């Protein structure tokens, strides 16, 4: 008769033997076995999932590159590369890669989640007109009206406490920038919005957005994609609630939009474009109602928290750099005769200090800091001289790319002057320096899968900051968001804006107070 001890040993052996064999394979025979990296990362993707969950993935990747070099084996089937050549080889046009299978967590008919290149190109052609240059000109009045409301609200006192010398009470700009950008993008897509700037009723949606991108970031690193919805419910219930919450918020605004469309069929917005687009091959509706909801929801999240993070970072750094602040303020205030003249176009584009400040904020606090994993096509691909086998993943960390000391001397210092041609030096050499630096700068990614609303986002960034500088003065009102001693590796630099690297970046702060300028 077989005893309990024998049964236990047999059971443990049947469990441990495959794990041991798989570990030996991953450490010795796997195509990525030659690349250095943390031991646990070579054995399991749970290490990456841990850093995605706590929001420190960008710092962990930076630390790995400093320890192991340009190529790091970050997961058993994935390496990260830190070089401009490698970045272009992964994300540039015509490369032999596709989006990794992990993108299925976005929905296989969602633009961001489509793996097949032809399917993606077809759907992008349908959606691109919603954010084309001509469409952006139509969106601009809506954007400016919402920015006007934003400026009115941030310059108000929210408490009964009497203002000091005309200054507002301190505002948490991560919250207020999220209210602004969510209202802008929802009005552009649906004509209506949740009115976050003027009502507290729907402020809970910002926590939903934050949680859904955190959940998405973890699932991108999860060891298996099989039944990932069930995995989220079982292992990440504190995050999984965000999916039905997002659906509820999305359906509420879509319902209002349907009602508005019935009363006024002439309404033109992005939702209307997506809802009525026809497949050029069949003449049928290109997107089913569920696909419209998923894609419009994706655009709202992508167009709100990412732009909000960039505006928040701009406030953080400009409020702490008085010389840069003065240069941007003087430039904007002298460029436009009146606030009504602040519009997208040549004058705004010629505000070089404003654009430099925004670029430097995007460099220091990029909005997509987790590696955007790509899978090598059949036959494999070459990345910075290295052969990547078919089916394996490769990616790059934007934070590390943006902090390469070879491209950005003193990389952890915010310095808008690095983007400005120094008139005391040779002009051609300066232009070449900036061109070379720009090879390591990719806040919106590059190639065919870069953000299709890039120009819309830049317009919002430039118009928001230009209007704020023209109408208001602002200053720092606390240390929220700063690095501090004892905060952990990479978080101790006091002049650096800290953020969490979920699927997109999330900040808290800065605290800023405002005062209306003298007429």
From TrEMBL:
Pfam family, one: p450
Transmembrane segments: 7-25
Keywords carried by this UniProt record: Heme, Iron, Membrane, Metal-binding, Monooxygenase, Oxidoreductase, Transmembrane, Transmembrane helix
GO MF annotation list: heme binding; iron ion binding; monooxygenase activity; oxidoreductase activity, acting on paired donors, with incorporation or reduction of molecular oxygen
InterPro entries: Cyt_P450, Cyt_P450_CS, Cyt_P450_E_grp-I, Cyt_P450_sf, Cytochrome_P450_monoxygenase
Coiled-coil residue windows: none
Residues reported in the UniProt entry to bind heme: 451
Obligatory cofactor(s): heme
Gene3D superfamilies linked: Cytochrome P450 (1.10.630.10)
Recorded family membership: Belongs to the cytochrome P450 family.
Protein name according to UniProt: Cytochrome P450
Species of origin: Hyaloscypha variabilis (strain UAMH 11265 / GT02V1 / F)
